[in-house]
Every structure is written in C-alpha cells, then in structure tokens.
Amino acid sequence: MATVEVTFTPLPAHVRTARLVATAVARRSGVSESLMDEVRLAVGEACSRAVETHAVQCPDEPVRVALSDQAGRFEIEVINAGKAAGMVSGGGRAGDGTLMPPGFSLAVIAGLAEDVQISETEAGTSVKMSWPLSGSLAAGSPA
Q: For the domain that residue 62 is a member of, what is the CATH number?
C-alpha cells in the first residue's frame, strides 16, 4: 500500500477525524480487529498532543499524519511543527481540569502501540507508532 497522508488544522475537533481515518486505513491494511482500539486511542493521544503543541507555538501550521504498511507492520507517524519542550511536553488537562504530568501522553502511547519512536528535529516533533499486520492480509491477499 502507498502511504496515506492526512493534514488537518490543529483543532481538537479534527482529532476524531484522524482517529477514524487511521482506523479505516489500519483495517484495510490488515491490522487485527483486536488491535483497533489500541490504534484508535494511540492516534488520538498523538494527535491531541500535536494539536496542543500547535495551539501554543504554530497555530497556522497543519498537523500531518502519515499511515503506511510495510514489512509486515502498520505504521502511523504524527508530525507536528512545534517543539515538545516548548509546552508541557506531553502533559495536558485531565477531565477534571487538573494538569497531567509531563510525558503522560507519551506513556499512554507507548502502552498502546507495539513500537514507538519519538524524534525531535528543527522541523518539529515526530511520533511513530506501529503494530503487526495479520498473517493473511499482510501476505498480499485482497481485503
């Protein structure tokens, strides 16, 4: 499968759309149905984190999400144009309005995805997550 790229205005309302797209592409790529909740939640955390960063540092820049399958894995990369260090660094607000500890969302993502890589460059921050593909669809069978 070719890479599917989605860019969206950094608004919290668009995080839901990113989750829906990620789930649809994961399903089409052959990710096991038992992993769909993990994909949906991890993408939601990574995109929410990116939206928070953009709100503070670069509200006019879009958040970018790249989805691909290769070498038996489904990979999602969420890229934001801001620097994590310039904000609460993965913190956020809990449902009751209290501040979440720094790195909390990254810990959640690490618990949901099988493999997580976080990198920060001059261009921004990238969170890559991946999950294994199911045997039959990963081998190239049509879905």
A: 3.30.565.10
pLDDT of 102 strictly over 60: no
Domain interval for residue 122: 4-138
* Confidence band for 135, pLDDT divided at 50, 70 and 90: low
Q: At 17, which helix (H) or strand (E)?
A: helix 13-29
Burial 28-48 (b: 16+ CB within 10 A, else e): ebbbbeebeebbbbbbbbbbb
- Assigned domain for 12 exists: yes
Report CA-CA distances (Å) from 119 to 17, 72, 98, 136, 141.
24, 23, 27, 32, 34
- Report the number of distinct structural domains present in the chain: 1
Evaluate whether 123 touches 84 at the Cβ level (below 8 Å): no
Let me know if residue 143 belongs to a domain. no
What single letter denotes the amino acid at residue 67? L
In a domain, 38, yes or no: yes
Higher pLDDT, 67 or 139: 67
Flag whether pLDDT at 124 surpasses 50: yes
